[in-house]
């Protein structure tokens, strides 16, 4: 905030407000830019316009009553957050979840990851000026939303995982629908590569721009595809595996330099790897119960604390739950990846053009409501 | 009735007045039609239908939108330069109607077949840059100013290869008169002998009319709305209509110079009147320009300028020199 | 030489991109003209809750115990019951939900001891005043009998 408190004087540089209401800032984010002509001298993101008080709500609701909230923190990876919350509470209580429930939760999480990356793809290209891939991605995403709707009942914010398993079982129609969706998505890759990836205009907009180097990334705690884009192969699903990820065979796509092109290719390849995970999980899906037996009606975990990280579509998200033995949690803290990812902008943006700012902001894939919670 | 018409049309002044009225009506209908076409084409490329409720196939949608724009309040920002603010939309719309007088719609139809017809068209279509600059500066808005500055640089950079590619055709026909250029293509169309000039002209034409992928001045997702951020109501409507009319004019010139105007392929008119050939070819080119908009992302501003200076101008110059050499030798 | 190759490769990539969009131009549209064609909601869709009608008695089993009211995180449910002196069971008389605050979590459906709540598939709920989100479930139940 040092920029605003400086004395007003006639300078060559001027301030431009990439305001809270702007077609490309993915939510209510305000970035105060100090410009010299078209080059950026300093950038200062200002957050807080969307604070909803999720962590305060957590103190006044029981563990079961807090369940709708994690989905709404990051509404694009709603299922992954729901899943992560339930895993954190189960770890605190020491519950064993039946195998079938684990497989179902992983399949739905990966579907959600694909849908989040598809939406990122569409909006990123809309920021660059190509309006059509947005509609194509939504057409593909619609199939995922219908699939998840048929078992969970919701399209965007899910409340399907329960402490000890899942709420409802899946049927053959869901499995067939998922397999045919994966086939359809794989046939789309050629279209997307022809329309976007090989396009010379796109390549010029995207190569060697917005370099988040390894030092910057490690300094600010950047995670997710942004970190993997600069060459660090850190994915929580491989580093600290939870659920059944250690039994499945998939790779982590890694970039080289950390420019927008690398992040873009990492996310496209991650979608393909998610398809692989889903196929393997469906093949190995066991029969059995979907809810653990012996789960008490009043959920009161023993005194203690747990920090449970999981890989959301944007990076490392985590739940830190402190329990004092009663039904109401003492404190739930949600670690969101977009908060750390956004801070890398302070070092990356100076020296770039305004048009590149929009592209870089789009390529980091932040969801502003999750920053403000 | 027929006697009166003949008398009026025989008289030079009468012909001019009737022609002007027809031109005005045609350009308005054309702009309305193009807006509808753009929305339909955009819709079907994006897997949806465009407008369909108002009128059959949504044809009356543009008229209804125009009425809505007329009914909106004309807001002038507080510290905007009032004179410049009011002049800008007028200045962008009126010069775009002048080229209709010299466009050769068919053998007898150019309203006033001046022997410097091509020069008239290009000189009047350059005035729209001035109008954009006036509009951007007079708005007292940082976003609008940025958009206007970019537009000026872009238009200057793309005007040069445009004129160079047109010069190649003029060298071949040795005349600036539109109808004579069309007559020179009666055996084969010029894009067969001047493919590079045709391509360069088409790219520069897209850039001159500020259409995607060169639509930096009105970049929707970067600068809110570029140079026409502050114009509301019918002022915005005038900018909008002027853009579409400009697209039509530029495609009509491309048809005349490279696609043979009102002649059929290789001189066979196949019984279809010349004006139908002309309009069909022009609307085909307009469709291609619309197709470009919905496929490509936007170029960044410095890439746009360097593309013009480093790629288009050398190509156009080389083409001109080769054309001149070949004509000298033959 | 690399200059010309760049131009040609770049130009060809643009043409391939154009090919992708032109193919979509003549494929059928994927949208639905909403007020004229409506889609069927899947049976597990979460609309607002409703009282389930059981085939053996032809009525619901709600005894106004208030479990759903206590478990709801948003405080959406308000109900009142009355003891039927003759049969010695409690029956619900008023049951209101304020759907504009409901987060569709499903805790009421799962925690009901009589399993008498279920999600409806109503989605056309938009109306003019904010109090139209308040739904009277008993009246809704009786009207769905016809």
Name its key features:
heterotrimer; A: 373 residues; alpha+beta; 49% helix; B: mainly alpha; 2 domains; 12 helices; 64% helix
Could you describe the 3D structure shown?
The complex is a heterotrimer of chains A (373), B (330) and C (146). Chain A is α+β, with helices and mostly antiparallel strands and 373 residues long. Chain A has a single domain (65-342), classed as Cytochrome-c3 Hydrogenase, chain B, CATH 1.10.645.10. Chain A has helices at residues 2-5, 54-59, 68-73, 78-93, 99-128, 132-152, 172-197, 200-206, 214-220, 225-229, 236-239, 260-283, 337-343, 345-348, 354-364, 368-372, and strands spanning 14-18, 30-36, 39-46, 161-162, 165-166, 304-312, 315-323, 331-335. Chain A has a three-stranded antiparallel beta sheet. A three-stranded antiparallel beta sheet of chain A has the order 6-7-8. In chain A, strands 4-5 form a two-stranded antiparallel ribbon. Chain A is globular. The two termini of chain A are 22 Å apart. Chain B folds into two domains: 1-71; 76-329, no CATH class. Chain B has twelve helices and no strands. Chain B has helices spanning 2-10, 12-45, 61-70, 82-93, 117-125, 127-138, 142-173, 178-183, 195-208, 234-258, 274-293, 301-329. In chain B, helix 1 (2-10) packs across helix 2 (12-45) and helix 2 runs parallel beside helix 11. With 146 residues, chain C is α+β, with helices and mostly antiparallel strands. Chain C is built from four helices and five strands; from the N terminus they run H-E-H-E-E-H-E-E-H. A three-stranded antiparallel beta sheet of chain C has the order 2-3-5. Chain C has a two-stranded antiparallel sheet with strand order 1-4. The N and C termini of chain C lie far apart (81 Å). Chains in contact: A-B, A-C, B-C.
């Amino acid at each position: 905030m040092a920029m605003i408190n400086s004395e007003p004087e006639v300078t060559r540089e001027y301030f431009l407000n990439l305001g809270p209401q702007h077609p490309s800032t993915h939510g209510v984010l305000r970035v105060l830019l100090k410009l010299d002509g078209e080059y950026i001298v300093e950038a200062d993101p200002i957050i807080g316009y969307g604070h909803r008080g999720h962590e305060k709500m957590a103190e006044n609701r029981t563990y079961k009553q807090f369940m709708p909230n994690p989905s709404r923190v990051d509404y694009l990876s709603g299922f992954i957050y729901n899943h992560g919350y339930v895993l954190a509470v189960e770890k605190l209580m020491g519950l064993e979840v039946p195998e079938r429930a684990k497989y179902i939760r992983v399949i739905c999480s990966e579907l959600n990851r694909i849908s989040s990356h598809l939406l990122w793809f569409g909006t990123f290209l809309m920021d660059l000026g190509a309006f059509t891939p947005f509609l194509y991605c939504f057409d593909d995403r619609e199939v995922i939303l219908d699939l998840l709707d048929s078992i969970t009942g919701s399209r965007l914010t899910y409340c399907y995982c329960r402490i000890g398993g899942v709420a409802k079982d899946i049927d053959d129609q869901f499995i067939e629908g998922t397999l045919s969706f994966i086939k359809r998505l794989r046939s789309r890759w050629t279209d997307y590569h022809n329309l976007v990836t090989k396009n010379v205009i796109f390549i010029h907009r995207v190569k060697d721009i917005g370099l988040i180097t390894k030092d910057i990334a490690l300094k600010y705690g950047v995670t997710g595809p942004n970190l993997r884009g600069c060459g660090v192969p850190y994915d929580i699903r491989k580093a600290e595996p939870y659920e059944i990820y250690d039994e499945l065979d998939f790779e982590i796509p890694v970039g080289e330099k950390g420019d927008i092109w690398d992040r873009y290719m990492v996310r496209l390849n991650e979608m393909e790897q998610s398809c692989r995970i889903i196929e393997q999980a469906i093949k190995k899906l066991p029969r059995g119960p979907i809810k653990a037996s012996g789960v008490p009606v009043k959920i009161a975990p023993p005194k203690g604390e747990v920090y449970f990280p999981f890989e959301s579509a944007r990076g490392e998200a985590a739940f830190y739950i402190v329990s004092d033995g009663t039904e109401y949690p003492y404190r739930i803290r949600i670690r969101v990846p977009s908060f750390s990812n956004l801070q890398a902008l302070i070092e990356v943006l100076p020296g770039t053009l305004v048009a590149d700012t929009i592209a870089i902001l789009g390529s980091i894939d932040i969801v502003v409501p999750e920053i403000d919670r | 009735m027929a006697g009166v018409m003949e008398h009026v049309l025989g008289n030079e002044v009468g012909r001019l007045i009737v022609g002007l009225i027809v031109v005005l009506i045609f350009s308005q209908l054309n702009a309305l039609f193009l807006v509808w076409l753009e929305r339909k084409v955009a819709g079907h490329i994006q897997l949806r239908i465009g407008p369909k409720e108002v009128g059959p196939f949504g044809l009356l949608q543009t008229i209804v939108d125009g009425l809505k724009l007329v009914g909106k309040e004309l807001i002038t920002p507080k510290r905007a330069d009032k004179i410049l603010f009011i002049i800008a939309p007028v200045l962008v719309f009126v010069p775009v109607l002048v080229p209709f007088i010299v466009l050769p719609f068919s053998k007898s139809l150019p309203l006033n077949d001046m022997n410097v017809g091509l020069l008239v068209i290009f000189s009047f279509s350059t005035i729209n840059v001035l109008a954009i600059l006036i509009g951007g500066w007079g708005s007292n808005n940082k976003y609008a100013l940025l958009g206007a500055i970019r537009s000026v640089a872009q238009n200057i950079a793309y005007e040069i290869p445009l004129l160079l590619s047109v010069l190649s055709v003029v060298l071949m026909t040795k005349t600036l008169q539109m109808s004579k250029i069309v007559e020179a293509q009666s055996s084969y169309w010029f894009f067969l002998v001047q493919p590079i000039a045709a391509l360069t002209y088409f790219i520069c034409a897209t850039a001159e009319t500020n259409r995607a992928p060169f639509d930096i001045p009105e970049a929707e997702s970067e600068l809110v709305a570029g140079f026409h951020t502050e114009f509301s109501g019918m002022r915005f409507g005038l900018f909008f209509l002027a853009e579409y009319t400009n697209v039509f004019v530029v495609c009509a010139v491309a048809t005349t110079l490279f696609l043979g105007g009102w002649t059929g392929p290789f001189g066979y008119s196949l019984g279809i009147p010349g004006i139908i050939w002309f309009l069909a070819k022009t609307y085909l080119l307009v469709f291609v320009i619309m197709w470009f908009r919905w496929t490509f992302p936007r170029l960044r501003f410095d890439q746009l300028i360097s593309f013009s200076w480093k790629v288009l101008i050398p190509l156009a110059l080389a083409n001109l020199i080769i054309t001149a050499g070949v004509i000298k030798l033959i | 030489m690399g200059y010309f190759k760049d131009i040609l490769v770049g130009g060809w990539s643009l043409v391939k991109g154009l090919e992708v969009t032109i193919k979509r131009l003549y494929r059928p549209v994927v949208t639905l003209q909403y007020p004229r064609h409506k889609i069927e909601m899947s049976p597990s869709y979460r609309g607002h809750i409703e009282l389930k009608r059981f085939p053996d008695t032809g009525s619901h089993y709600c005894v106004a115990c208030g479990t759903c009211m206590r478990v709801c995180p948003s405080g959406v449910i308000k109900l009142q019951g009355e003891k039927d002196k003759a049969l010695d069971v409690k029956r619900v008389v008023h049951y209101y939900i304020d759907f504009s605050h409901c987060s569709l979590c499903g805790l009421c459906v799962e925690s009901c001891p009589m399993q008498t709540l279920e999600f409806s598939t109503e989605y056309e709920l938009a109306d003019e005043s904010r109090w139209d989100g308040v739904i009277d479930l008993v009246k809704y139940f009786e009207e769905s009998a016809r």
